[in-house]
Backbone:
């Protein structure tokens, strides 16, 4: 039986050497990426859905601030194009996510196999043949046999991944370029439009009368009080009956209203700013996917055995915080209107 | 209109909307509410035009990646198929190891005269092979 053990060990060495041909396809790196990307599906959807969500909020602010609503379309028309674009954006997100998850599955990420039942077989043979091997020896044999079978399947996994990853590299990079452009340019502009409609609504506490509303320069509380005092003086000068206490009370009410409006405005502005932060996090997450994919492609095409795992792990370490940043941007505050 | 041009159009509409907004405020300040209402209509129309052009730009950008998306979907299908084949092969190995394990146990049961155990093992083998 010792001879059999030696034979197993020889085969293990041989298989390990064969496996070395594709050591450059790091299965654990692919699995790690797929696991991270799979968990970010909801976060990507939050951003894409908010392209439409922002249009709805913008519409509601516009509608509320409008002097006349005669020329404002119903919301079903006003945000139809945004809703369509939002859905298409999320569909494109899913293409990237599902591709990476498929790679993870091929790399063995969803594999429930552990030992193929080989330890049980070795124990049974040992029992039938009365070979007299002790527990450590039977374990060594079953471990070696399991390792051989696992390595054979891993060779197949690496070969398949080495076939498909380089084929996909240009296409995933192109799609990521577009997704990043959409987030930065189009979603960014949509948030600008939403912010403009918020500024329009809160115009009394945002911009001085007659001043250009963009860029927004919020006046100080002192400035607002100064304007209120001037306004009160104008009103008072037009009254026949003057009452100082009444004037003072009106001024206090105005102040409270101004402060309340300012607080509301700042909350709305802060919510939009949070969503802007999600853009950077989304782009960062996409760059991680691109970076890992390029590293894997480079290691496959150059057949190099560099420290792919370490490089990929450095990318993946950045991925989680970026996804959490997206979630935080949308968790802090839901749509206002 | 291509996506880049649509981006420019959306930005231009937004700038025009900003200008109309300033005009509206100037009219309001001067108490000219009729013109302020006209300017307000213009703000809303321009903002709507900017929103639409911006959304169309997204659709156009994604349509230019149609080929990339299709190839990625095809590759995803192939990768999933390869993963499925390997998983099936692994299940086959598991099955035959199970058959071999039960066969050796069947031999051991027969040798020891454990007829009940032998029948149980034979039934397990039949179930594994079915």
Residues:
């Amino acid at each position: 039986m010792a001879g059999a053990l030696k034979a197993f060990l020889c085969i293990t060495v041989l298989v390990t050497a064969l496996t070395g041909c594709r050591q450059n396809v790091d299965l654990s790196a692919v699995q790690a990426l797929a696991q991270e990307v799979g968990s970010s599906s909801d976060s990507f959807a939050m951003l894409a859905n908010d392209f439409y969500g922002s249009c709805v909020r913008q519409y509601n602010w516009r509608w509320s601030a409008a002097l006349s609503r005669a020329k404002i379309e119903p919301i079903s028309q006003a945000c139809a194009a945004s809703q369509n674009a939002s859905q298409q954006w999320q569909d494109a997100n899913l293409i990237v996510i599902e591709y990476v998850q498929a790679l993870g599955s091929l790399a063995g990420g969803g594999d429930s196999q552990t030992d193929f039942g080989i330890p049980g077989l070795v124990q049974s043979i040992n029992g039938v043949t009365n070979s007299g091997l002790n527990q450590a020896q039977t374990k060594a044999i079953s471990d070696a046999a399991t390792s051989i079978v696992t390595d054979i399947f891993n060779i197949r996994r690496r070969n398949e991944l080495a076939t498909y990853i380089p084929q996909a590299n240009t296409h995933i990079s192109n799609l990521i370029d577009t997704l990043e452009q959409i987030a930065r340019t189009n979603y960014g502009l949509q948030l600008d439009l939403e912010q403009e409609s918020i500024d329009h609504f809160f115009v009394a506490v945002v911009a001085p009368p007659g001043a250009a509303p963009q860029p927004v320069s919020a006046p100080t509380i002192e400035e607002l009080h100064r304007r209120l005092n001037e306004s009160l003086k104008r009103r008072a000068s037009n009254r026949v009956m003057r009452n100082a206490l009444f004037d003072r009370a009106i001024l206090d009410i105005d102040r409270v209203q101004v402060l309340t409006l300012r607080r509301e405005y700042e909350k709305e502005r802060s919510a939009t700013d949070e969503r802007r932060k999600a853009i950077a996090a989304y782009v960062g997450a996409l760059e991680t996917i691109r970076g890992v994919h390029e590293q894997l492609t480079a290691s496959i095409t150059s057949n190099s055995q560099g420290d792919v795992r370490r490089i990929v792990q450095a990318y993946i370490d950045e991925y989680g915080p970026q996804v959490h940043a997206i979630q935080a941007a949308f968790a802090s505050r839901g749509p206002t209107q | 209109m291509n996506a880049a041009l649509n981006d420019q159009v959306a930005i231009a509409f937004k700038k025009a909307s900003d200008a109309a907004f300033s005009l509206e405020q100037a009219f309001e300040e001067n108490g000219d509410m009729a013109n302020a209402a006209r300017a307000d209509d213009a703000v809303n129309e321009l903002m709507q035009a900017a929103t639409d052009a911006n959304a169309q730009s997204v659709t156009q950008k994604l349509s230019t990646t149609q080929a990339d998306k299709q190839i990625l979907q095809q590759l995803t299908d192939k990768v999933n198929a390869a993963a499925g084949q390997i998983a099936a092969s692994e299940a086959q190995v598991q099955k035959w190891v199970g058959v071999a394990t039960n066969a050796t146990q069947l031999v051991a049961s027969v040798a020891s005269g454990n007829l009940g155990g032998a029948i149980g093992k034979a039934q397990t083998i039949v179930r594994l092979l079915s």
Summary: Chain B has two domains: 1-64, 68-130.
